[in-house]
Amino acid sequence: MRIGPIETDVPVVLAPMAGITNTAFRRLCREYGGGLFVSEMITARALVERNVTTMRLIQHHPSETTRSIQLYGVDPKTMGEAAAILVDEDHADHIDLNFGCPVPKVTRKGGGAALPWKTTLFEQILHATVTAAGDVPVTIKMRMGIDDDHLTYLEAARIARDAGVAAIGLHARTAAQHYSGNAHWEAIRTLKAEIPDLPILGNGDIWSGSDAARMVAETGCDGVIVGRGCLGRPWLFADLEASFGKSTEPVYPTLGFVADAFRRHAELLVEFLEDENHGCRDIRKHVAWYFKGYPVGGETRSALARVGSLNEMDEILASIERDAPYPGEDAEGQRGRAGSPKRPSLPDGWLESREISGGDMRELVDTESSHSGG
Hints:
TIM Barrel, alpha/beta, disordered C terminus, 2 domains, 11% strand
Protein backbone atom coordinates (compact mmCIF):
# COMPACT_ATOMS: atom_id res chain seq x y z
CA MET A 1 0.00 0.00 0.00
CA ARG A 2 1.33 3.43 -0.94
CA ILE A 3 0.28 6.73 0.67
CA GLY A 4 2.27 9.52 -0.92
CA PRO A 5 5.93 8.56 -0.46
CA ILE A 6 5.08 6.00 2.25
CA GLU A 7 4.87 2.34 1.29
CA THR A 8 3.88 -0.53 3.59
CA ASP A 9 4.35 -4.26 3.04
CA VAL A 10 0.73 -4.94 3.95
CA PRO A 11 -2.31 -2.68 3.40
CA VAL A 12 -3.07 -2.26 7.08
CA VAL A 13 -3.40 0.80 9.34
CA LEU A 14 -3.71 0.78 13.13
CA ALA A 15 -6.56 3.16 13.95
CA PRO A 16 -5.93 5.95 16.44
CA MET A 17 -7.60 5.08 19.75
CA ALA A 18 -7.56 7.45 22.71
CA GLY A 19 -5.61 6.07 25.65
CA ILE A 20 -4.61 2.99 23.65
CA THR A 21 -2.36 3.69 20.66
CA ASN A 22 0.50 5.26 22.53
CA THR A 23 4.11 4.41 21.74
CA ALA A 24 3.99 1.27 23.89
CA PHE A 25 1.04 -0.30 22.07
CA ARG A 26 2.29 0.74 18.64
CA ARG A 27 5.67 -0.87 19.32
CA LEU A 28 3.98 -4.04 20.55
CA CYS A 29 1.81 -4.35 17.45
CA ARG A 30 4.86 -3.80 15.22
CA GLU A 31 6.55 -6.77 16.87
CA TYR A 32 3.88 -9.04 15.36
CA GLY A 33 3.32 -7.59 11.90
CA GLY A 34 3.61 -4.67 9.53
CA GLY A 35 1.46 -1.72 8.58
CA LEU A 36 1.07 1.96 9.36
CA PHE A 37 0.65 2.67 13.08
CA VAL A 38 -1.06 5.96 13.98
CA SER A 39 -0.83 7.80 17.30
CA GLU A 40 -3.82 8.51 19.46
CA MET A 41 -5.60 11.77 18.64
CA ILE A 42 -3.64 14.96 19.32
CA THR A 43 -5.50 18.23 19.83
CA ALA A 44 -4.09 20.90 17.50
CA ARG A 45 -4.67 23.68 20.02
CA ALA A 46 -2.78 21.81 22.72
CA LEU A 47 0.09 21.17 20.35
CA VAL A 48 0.36 24.84 19.42
CA GLU A 49 0.26 25.71 23.13
CA ARG A 50 3.07 23.18 23.76
CA ASN A 51 0.99 21.32 26.33
CA VAL A 52 3.34 19.01 28.27
CA THR A 53 1.14 15.91 27.90
CA THR A 54 0.68 16.52 24.20
CA MET A 55 4.39 17.02 23.58
CA ARG A 56 4.97 13.63 25.22
CA LEU A 57 2.30 11.95 23.08
CA ILE A 58 3.85 13.07 19.79
CA GLN A 59 7.16 11.42 20.62
CA HIS A 60 8.09 8.20 18.83
CA HIS A 61 10.50 5.43 19.73
CA PRO A 62 13.52 5.14 17.39
CA SER A 63 12.13 1.80 16.15
CA GLU A 64 9.08 3.57 14.73
CA THR A 65 10.46 4.24 11.29
CA THR A 66 7.27 5.80 9.90
CA ARG A 67 5.90 8.29 12.40
CA SER A 68 2.16 8.84 12.03
CA ILE A 69 0.26 11.39 14.10
CA GLN A 70 -3.46 12.11 14.10
CA LEU A 71 -4.57 15.74 14.56
CA TYR A 72 -7.94 17.02 15.70
CA GLY A 73 -9.17 20.60 15.53
CA VAL A 74 -11.90 22.94 14.28
CA ASP A 75 -9.88 26.05 13.42
CA PRO A 76 -8.03 26.12 10.06
CA LYS A 77 -5.37 28.52 11.37
CA THR A 78 -4.58 26.37 14.38
CA MET A 79 -4.56 23.19 12.32
CA GLY A 80 -2.08 24.74 9.92
CA GLU A 81 0.13 25.88 12.79
CA ALA A 82 0.01 22.44 14.38
CA ALA A 83 0.91 20.73 11.10
CA ALA A 84 3.82 23.15 10.68
CA ILE A 85 5.16 22.23 14.12
CA LEU A 86 4.99 18.52 13.30
CA VAL A 87 6.77 18.97 9.98
CA ASP A 88 9.24 21.78 10.69
CA GLU A 89 10.39 20.18 13.95
CA ASP A 90 10.55 16.71 12.38
CA HIS A 91 7.95 14.96 14.54
CA ALA A 92 5.99 13.19 11.79
CA ASP A 93 6.25 11.45 8.43
CA HIS A 94 2.47 11.27 8.04
CA ILE A 95 -0.42 13.35 9.39
CA ASP A 96 -3.95 11.99 9.69
CA LEU A 97 -6.92 14.28 10.37
CA ASN A 98 -9.76 13.20 12.61
CA PHE A 99 -13.21 13.72 11.10
CA GLY A 100 -14.65 10.49 12.45
CA CYS A 101 -14.80 10.71 16.25
CA PRO A 102 -18.44 10.31 17.47
CA VAL A 103 -17.74 11.08 21.14
CA PRO A 104 -20.09 13.80 22.46
CA LYS A 105 -17.33 15.97 23.97
CA VAL A 106 -15.86 16.23 20.45
CA THR A 107 -18.98 16.51 18.27
CA ARG A 108 -20.69 19.05 20.52
CA LYS A 109 -17.78 21.36 19.70
CA GLY A 110 -18.32 20.83 15.99
CA GLY A 111 -15.35 18.49 15.67
CA GLY A 112 -14.85 14.89 14.63
CA ALA A 113 -17.75 13.36 12.71
CA ALA A 114 -19.76 16.60 12.96
CA LEU A 115 -17.31 18.78 11.05
CA PRO A 116 -17.68 17.61 7.40
CA TRP A 117 -21.27 18.89 7.49
CA LYS A 118 -19.81 22.41 7.33
CA THR A 119 -18.31 22.09 3.87
CA THR A 120 -16.43 25.40 3.64
CA LEU A 121 -14.88 24.98 7.10
CA PHE A 122 -13.94 21.40 6.22
CA GLU A 123 -12.27 22.56 3.02
CA GLN A 124 -10.41 25.37 4.80
CA ILE A 125 -9.01 22.97 7.40
CA LEU A 126 -7.82 20.61 4.69
CA HIS A 127 -6.15 23.34 2.65
CA ALA A 128 -4.44 24.85 5.71
CA THR A 129 -3.10 21.48 6.86
CA VAL A 130 -2.02 20.17 3.46
CA THR A 131 -0.25 23.48 2.68
CA ALA A 132 1.59 23.50 6.02
CA ALA A 133 2.52 19.82 5.71
CA GLY A 134 4.30 20.31 2.39
CA ASP A 135 5.80 17.00 1.28
CA VAL A 136 4.48 15.13 4.32
CA PRO A 137 1.31 13.25 3.24
CA VAL A 138 -1.98 14.20 4.88
CA THR A 139 -4.83 11.71 5.11
CA ILE A 140 -8.29 11.89 6.63
CA LYS A 141 -10.44 9.46 8.59
CA MET A 142 -14.16 10.12 8.56
CA ARG A 143 -17.57 8.54 9.02
CA MET A 144 -20.47 8.26 6.60
CA GLY A 145 -22.06 11.29 8.18
CA ILE A 146 -23.92 12.50 11.23
CA ASP A 147 -26.90 10.19 10.76
CA ASP A 148 -28.79 8.55 7.91
CA ASP A 149 -30.45 11.87 7.03
CA HIS A 150 -27.18 13.81 7.00
CA LEU A 151 -24.65 11.74 5.06
CA THR A 152 -21.50 13.61 4.10
CA TYR A 153 -18.88 11.08 3.06
CA LEU A 154 -19.10 11.35 -0.74
CA GLU A 155 -19.05 15.14 -0.84
CA ALA A 156 -16.34 15.25 1.83
CA ALA A 157 -14.22 12.81 -0.18
CA ARG A 158 -14.45 14.96 -3.30
CA ILE A 159 -13.42 18.04 -1.30
CA ALA A 160 -10.54 16.12 0.28
CA ARG A 161 -9.28 14.85 -3.06
CA ASP A 162 -9.33 18.34 -4.53
CA ALA A 163 -7.51 19.69 -1.44
CA GLY A 164 -4.61 17.33 -2.00
CA VAL A 165 -5.04 14.63 0.65
CA ALA A 166 -3.08 11.44 0.01
CA ALA A 167 -5.69 8.88 1.15
CA ILE A 168 -9.16 8.66 2.67
CA GLY A 169 -10.24 6.33 5.46
CA LEU A 170 -13.95 5.61 5.96
CA HIS A 171 -15.44 4.12 9.09
CA ALA A 172 -18.60 2.77 7.53
CA ARG A 173 -20.93 3.93 10.28
CA THR A 174 -22.62 7.25 11.04
CA ALA A 175 -21.92 9.23 14.20
CA ALA A 176 -25.40 8.27 15.39
CA GLN A 177 -24.48 4.59 15.18
CA HIS A 178 -21.47 5.20 17.38
CA TYR A 179 -20.01 1.65 17.41
CA SER A 180 -23.31 -0.22 17.41
CA GLY A 181 -24.83 -2.48 14.78
CA ASN A 182 -22.99 -3.49 11.66
CA ALA A 183 -20.67 -1.35 9.56
CA HIS A 184 -22.08 -0.59 6.11
CA TRP A 185 -19.31 -1.94 3.94
CA GLU A 186 -21.31 -1.06 0.83
CA ALA A 187 -20.51 2.60 1.58
CA ILE A 188 -16.80 1.79 1.26
CA ARG A 189 -17.48 0.20 -2.12
CA THR A 190 -19.46 3.27 -3.21
CA LEU A 191 -16.70 5.60 -2.07
CA LYS A 192 -14.02 3.67 -3.96
CA ALA A 193 -16.13 3.81 -7.13
CA GLU A 194 -16.62 7.56 -6.64
CA ILE A 195 -12.93 8.29 -5.87
CA PRO A 196 -10.93 5.70 -7.86
CA ASP A 197 -7.79 7.83 -8.07
CA LEU A 198 -6.99 7.89 -4.32
CA PRO A 199 -6.26 5.08 -1.87
CA ILE A 200 -9.47 4.31 0.03
CA LEU A 201 -9.10 2.59 3.40
CA GLY A 202 -12.03 0.72 4.92
CA ASN A 203 -12.78 0.61 8.63
CA GLY A 204 -15.43 -1.15 10.68
CA ASP A 205 -16.03 -4.72 11.95
CA ILE A 206 -12.59 -6.14 11.22
CA TRP A 207 -12.11 -8.68 13.98
CA SER A 208 -9.79 -11.09 12.14
CA GLY A 209 -7.42 -11.36 9.23
CA SER A 210 -10.12 -13.05 7.17
CA ASP A 211 -12.47 -10.09 7.82
CA ALA A 212 -9.84 -7.75 6.39
CA ALA A 213 -9.32 -9.83 3.27
CA ARG A 214 -13.09 -10.10 2.79
CA MET A 215 -13.53 -6.31 3.10
CA VAL A 216 -10.96 -5.71 0.37
CA ALA A 217 -12.55 -8.35 -1.87
CA GLU A 218 -16.10 -7.08 -1.36
CA THR A 219 -15.47 -3.33 -1.55
CA GLY A 220 -12.38 -2.91 -3.71
CA CYS A 221 -10.75 -0.72 -1.05
CA ASP A 222 -6.98 -0.35 -1.10
CA GLY A 223 -6.39 -1.17 2.54
CA VAL A 224 -8.00 -1.58 5.94
CA ILE A 225 -7.98 0.33 9.21
CA VAL A 226 -8.11 -1.84 12.31
CA GLY A 227 -9.27 -0.46 15.65
CA ARG A 228 -11.10 -2.39 18.35
CA GLY A 229 -10.24 -5.74 16.76
CA CYS A 230 -6.67 -5.56 18.09
CA LEU A 231 -7.58 -4.65 21.67
CA GLY A 232 -5.86 -7.30 23.75
CA ARG A 233 -4.75 -8.96 20.49
CA PRO A 234 -1.63 -7.24 19.13
CA TRP A 235 -0.85 -10.51 17.30
CA LEU A 236 -3.78 -9.69 15.00
CA PHE A 237 -1.16 -7.97 12.84
CA ALA A 238 0.43 -11.37 12.18
CA ASP A 239 -2.98 -12.69 11.09
CA LEU A 240 -3.43 -9.68 8.83
CA GLU A 241 -0.08 -10.31 7.19
CA ALA A 242 -1.04 -13.93 6.59
CA SER A 243 -4.41 -12.93 5.09
CA PHE A 244 -2.69 -10.59 2.66
CA GLY A 245 -0.28 -13.25 1.43
CA LYS A 246 2.80 -12.74 3.56
CA SER A 247 4.78 -15.73 4.80
CA THR A 248 3.58 -15.42 8.38
CA GLU A 249 1.08 -17.84 9.87
CA PRO A 250 -2.13 -16.96 11.76
CA VAL A 251 -1.70 -17.03 15.53
CA TYR A 252 -3.82 -19.33 17.69
CA PRO A 253 -2.33 -18.41 21.05
CA THR A 254 -2.11 -20.54 24.13
CA LEU A 255 -2.77 -18.85 27.44
CA GLY A 256 0.98 -18.64 28.02
CA PHE A 257 1.42 -16.78 24.72
CA VAL A 258 -1.27 -14.30 25.77
CA ALA A 259 0.27 -13.83 29.22
CA ASP A 260 3.66 -13.11 27.66
CA ALA A 261 2.12 -10.50 25.33
CA PHE A 262 0.31 -8.89 28.26
CA ARG A 263 3.57 -8.78 30.25
CA ARG A 264 5.44 -7.28 27.28
CA HIS A 265 2.75 -4.61 26.89
CA ALA A 266 3.12 -3.67 30.56
CA GLU A 267 6.90 -3.52 30.24
CA LEU A 268 6.64 -1.15 27.25
CA LEU A 269 4.13 1.03 29.12
CA VAL A 270 6.48 1.33 32.06
CA GLU A 271 9.28 2.37 29.70
CA PHE A 272 7.07 4.90 27.90
CA LEU A 273 5.57 6.44 31.04
CA GLU A 274 8.88 6.27 32.92
CA ASP A 275 7.06 5.11 36.04
CA GLU A 276 6.39 1.49 36.98
CA ASN A 277 3.27 2.16 39.03
CA HIS A 278 1.80 4.39 36.31
CA GLY A 279 2.54 1.81 33.62
CA CYS A 280 0.95 -0.98 35.64
CA ARG A 281 -2.12 1.15 36.31
CA ASP A 282 -2.46 1.76 32.57
CA ILE A 283 -2.31 -1.95 31.67
CA ARG A 284 -5.22 -2.72 33.99
CA LYS A 285 -7.82 -1.63 31.43
CA HIS A 286 -6.46 -4.22 29.00
CA VAL A 287 -6.99 -7.27 31.27
CA ALA A 288 -10.45 -8.27 30.03
CA TRP A 289 -9.44 -7.83 26.38
CA TYR A 290 -6.32 -9.99 26.61
CA PHE A 291 -7.88 -12.86 28.55
CA LYS A 292 -11.28 -12.93 26.81
CA GLY A 293 -12.39 -16.55 26.51
CA TYR A 294 -9.44 -18.05 28.39
CA PRO A 295 -9.71 -20.07 31.63
CA VAL A 296 -8.51 -17.31 33.94
CA GLY A 297 -10.52 -17.19 37.15
CA GLY A 298 -12.18 -14.14 38.59
CA GLU A 299 -9.69 -13.92 41.44
CA THR A 300 -6.74 -13.82 39.03
CA ARG A 301 -8.44 -11.29 36.77
CA SER A 302 -9.25 -9.12 39.77
CA ALA A 303 -5.65 -9.29 40.96
CA LEU A 304 -4.36 -8.26 37.53
CA ALA A 305 -6.84 -5.38 37.51
CA ARG A 306 -5.20 -4.09 40.71
CA VAL A 307 -1.58 -4.84 39.84
CA GLY A 308 0.95 -2.22 40.90
CA SER A 309 4.34 -3.57 39.82
CA LEU A 310 5.91 -5.88 37.26
CA ASN A 311 7.11 -8.25 40.01
CA GLU A 312 3.58 -8.49 41.35
CA MET A 313 2.33 -9.16 37.81
CA ASP A 314 4.87 -11.95 37.38
CA GLU A 315 3.69 -13.61 40.59
CA ILE A 316 0.08 -13.49 39.44
CA LEU A 317 0.82 -14.77 35.95
CA ALA A 318 2.88 -17.64 37.38
CA SER A 319 -0.35 -19.20 38.64
CA ILE A 320 -2.08 -19.53 35.27
CA GLU A 321 -2.22 -22.68 33.12
CA ARG A 322 0.21 -21.66 30.41
CA ASP A 323 -0.61 -24.70 28.28
CA ALA A 324 -4.32 -23.90 28.11
CA PRO A 325 -5.12 -23.95 24.39
CA TYR A 326 -6.62 -21.27 22.20
CA PRO A 327 -10.36 -21.32 23.01
CA GLY A 328 -11.62 -20.58 19.49
CA GLU A 329 -14.76 -18.50 19.09
CA ASP A 330 -14.86 -17.59 22.77
CA ALA A 331 -11.73 -15.48 22.24
CA GLU A 332 -12.90 -14.00 18.95
CA GLY A 333 -15.47 -11.45 17.84
CA GLN A 334 -16.26 -7.98 19.03
CA ARG A 335 -14.04 -6.28 21.57
CA GLY A 336 -14.63 -3.00 23.35
CA ARG A 337 -18.00 -1.44 23.98
CA ALA A 338 -20.43 -1.39 21.07
CA GLY A 339 -23.03 0.69 22.88
CA SER A 340 -26.27 1.61 21.18
CA PRO A 341 -27.32 4.19 18.59
CA LYS A 342 -27.64 7.66 20.08
CA ARG A 343 -28.52 11.11 18.92
CA PRO A 344 -25.26 12.95 18.21
CA SER A 345 -24.41 15.94 20.40
CA LEU A 346 -23.97 18.97 18.15
CA PRO A 347 -23.58 22.74 18.58
CA ASP A 348 -26.89 24.60 18.63
CA GLY A 349 -28.31 25.01 15.12
CA TRP A 350 -25.49 22.97 13.55
CA LEU A 351 -27.72 21.20 11.02
CA GLU A 352 -29.58 24.33 9.89
CA SER A 353 -26.88 25.27 7.36
CA ARG A 354 -23.87 23.74 5.62
CA GLU A 355 -21.98 27.00 6.21
CA ILE A 356 -20.75 28.51 9.47
CA SER A 357 -21.08 32.13 10.56
CA GLY A 358 -18.25 34.23 11.94
CA GLY A 359 -19.84 34.29 15.38
CA ASP A 360 -20.29 30.53 15.43
CA MET A 361 -16.69 30.08 14.32
CA ARG A 362 -15.39 32.26 17.15
CA GLU A 363 -17.45 30.27 19.63
CA LEU A 364 -16.06 26.97 18.30
CA VAL A 365 -12.48 28.19 18.53
CA ASP A 366 -13.02 29.50 22.05
CA THR A 367 -14.50 26.17 23.10
CA GLU A 368 -11.63 24.23 21.60
CA SER A 369 -9.13 26.49 23.36
CA SER A 370 -10.53 25.37 26.71
CA HIS A 371 -9.85 21.73 25.90
CA SER A 372 -6.10 21.36 25.93
CA GLY A 373 -4.33 18.03 26.19
CA GLY A 374 -3.82 15.01 23.97
